[in-house]
Amino acid sequence: MKGIVSLIPAGGGQRTSCPPLPFSGGKPMKTINLRWIYPHYRHDEFVEVSDEVWEVMRQAQREMNNYERRKVYHRAYYSLDAYSWTENYALEHGRSPEEILLEREERAAHLRLLAALPEALAHATPTQARRVRAYYIAGISQPEISRMEGVDSSKVSVAIRRGLRNMRRCYDCLFPAE
Asked: Which DSSP state fits 3?
């Protein structure tokens, strides 16, 4: 693992960890290099730590790596020290109250239109409604619809256009201000 935590032989030999100590429960303890943690250390200083401390340090290293990845992802390459709020704004920018309100209004309008869809489809002829459902809701292409129904592709296109026009008239009556 790069950075803070590493299994380093305590005696500089081939061992991967220190011999078990009486207070470690018989398990070998992990060794860390304090020079990697504290920049003012000029030489290697190895310290044995318990498994709990080891896991906390590994988690801290993961969080720092994730933070660096977020900076790259959000392209926060400019100086984050310019202002006290710059870093938080770049990495954790939340939506403004206006954006939240607009999103809620758009969602409510979408749900109203969706709720009125059966009534709007009822204003189209059965053929138009069937073809609009097939094209827009089921996602079937116009040539496929024409093959399934045994009609020319232009007839399907015209029926869909006229069905949408009839539905639009219904929506205009239901929601005159929108």
From this structure: S
